[in-house]
């Protein structure tokens, strides 16, 4: 019975994973890329590596992702890593298709604050959905999740801290204006990730306390009700 339930949930998790990665792909291409907002996380570090050391971002991201994936495999298990691979692979496919075939243009150059708000909302929803289905959208999200579980900090807060640190380093090669608006998007995304991942889940540390006398009265009432 339990295996049947797990089997039924697997397609649902896969669907949520694909929806989350589609939202991320749409946001990164149609909002971030088209409005020249920079990136945080491992992508931002890879761009910094290209600027400072001349390294290809594809190589840098791979070098950053692989160790984190190996750690996740040991700590989180095969299912988590499989969901992450599905997310990363589908993101690449979705983004490539949009880049090649999408004729949609969302021009917010005259209102980057709106672009930052939309980017933060959609990125937070997309990343949150991927995390809820038991995966991650990349090595930086995995690292945020592991630090969150290790230190007991909200995953969205860790997401914000890591991305802000990368954005500060990005000032070496990015204009201040775009970096500041990206920082706004990162803060919004972190809050939305926390909301999305915690929605419907019981809060930690709050347990219902029942006095011995009250518990006895509840049991007696239940017994009496059963007899009636």
UniProtKB/TrEMBL annotation:
Keywords, sorted A to Z: Cell membrane, Membrane, Transmembrane, Transmembrane helix
Transmembrane segments: 12-31, 51-73, 80-98, 110-131, 152-174, 180-199
Main location: membrane
Annotated compartments: Cell membrane
Entry keyword Membrane: yes
Superkingdom assignment: Bacteria
Topology in membrane: Multi-pass membrane protein
InterPro entries, per database record: UPF0750_membrane (IPR051461), YitT (IPR003740)
PANTHER family assigned to the protein according to its UniProt record, in alphabetical order: UPF0750 MEMBRANE PROTEIN YITT-RELATED (PTHR33545), UPF0750 MEMBRANE PROTEIN YPJC (PTHR33545:SF10)
Name listed for the protein in its UniProt record: YitT family protein
């Amino acid at each position: 019975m339990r295996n049947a339930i797990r089997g039924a949930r697997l397609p649902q998790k896969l669907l949520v994973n694909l929806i989350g990665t589609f939202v991320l792909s749409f946001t990164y291409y149609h909002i971030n890329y088209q409005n020249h907002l920079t990136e945080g996380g491992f992508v931002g570090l890879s761009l910094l590596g290209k600027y400072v050391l001349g390294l290809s971002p594809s190589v840098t991201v791979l070098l950053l992702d692989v160790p984190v994936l190996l750690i996740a495999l040991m700590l989180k298990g095969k299912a988590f890593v499989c969901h992450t691979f599905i997310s990363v692979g589908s993101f690449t496919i979705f983004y490539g298709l949009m880049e090649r075939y999408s004729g949609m243009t969302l021009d917010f150059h005259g209102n980057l604050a709106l672009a930052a708000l939309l980017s933060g909302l959609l990125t937070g929803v997309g990343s949150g959905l991927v995390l809820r289905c038991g995966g991650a959208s990349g090595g930086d999200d995995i690292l945020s999740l592991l630090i969150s579980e290790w230190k007991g900090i909200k995953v969205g807060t860790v997401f914000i801290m890591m991305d802000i640190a990368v954005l500060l380093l990005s000032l070496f090669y990015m204009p201040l204006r775009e970096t500041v608006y990206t920082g706004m998007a990162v803060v919004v995304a972190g809050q939305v990730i926390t909301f999305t991942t915690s929605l419907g889940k019981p809060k930690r540390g709050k347990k219902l306390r029942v006095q011995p006398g009250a518990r006895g009265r509840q049991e007696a009432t239940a017994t009496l009700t059963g007899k009636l």
